[in-house]
Amino acid sequence: MNGFPHSLSRRGFITLGLITALTSAIPFETMGAVRKMITPERSLSFYNTHTGEKLRSTYWCQGRYVPGALADINRILRDHRTGDIKKIDTKLLDLLYVLHGEFGTGDPFHIISGYRSPKTNSLLRKRSRGVAKNSMHTCGKAVDIRLPGRKLENLLTAAVELKRGGVGYYPESEFIHVDVGRVRYW
Prior knowledge:
Oligomer: single chain
Strand content: 15-25%
CATH class: Alpha Beta
Strand order of the largest sheet: 3-2-1-4-5-7-6-8
Mean pLDDT: 88
Largest sheet: 8 strands, mixed
């Protein structure tokens, strides 16, 4: 006997086939991201380059988001020009968590831009043609970041490989943009 059940029903055989097909279709890189997302705690560290504020916060614990930690993150990612605070999409936080995990560092993300009020976005659009009219920043769904001690190109590559949303590369300003909109690159 080889241990294989002799009476595998047709339904059982089809189910086994579907499970095998689905799990073999998941890219290896994605499996790592899935593994990171099932940890009991998720923490992020930030340094706001405009205000000098630092934050390390466990925003996910015991199977749920931590409201106080989310409020702290919303505050550090606020529009530094107006002081306006917006709820940051938790999908963006989860993306940052997985992205940070790719580098095995305790260093904080340096935040260049988090939430942007419509007023700030309009001001920036007048100064630069690279600012979108309907920027994901105005919805709390985007951040511009760098990770000290890590090459910007490596951060870019890791973000692109995650395929979780938009990724922009701004080498002259030394940051990348990540958002949780549709997958696209520039």
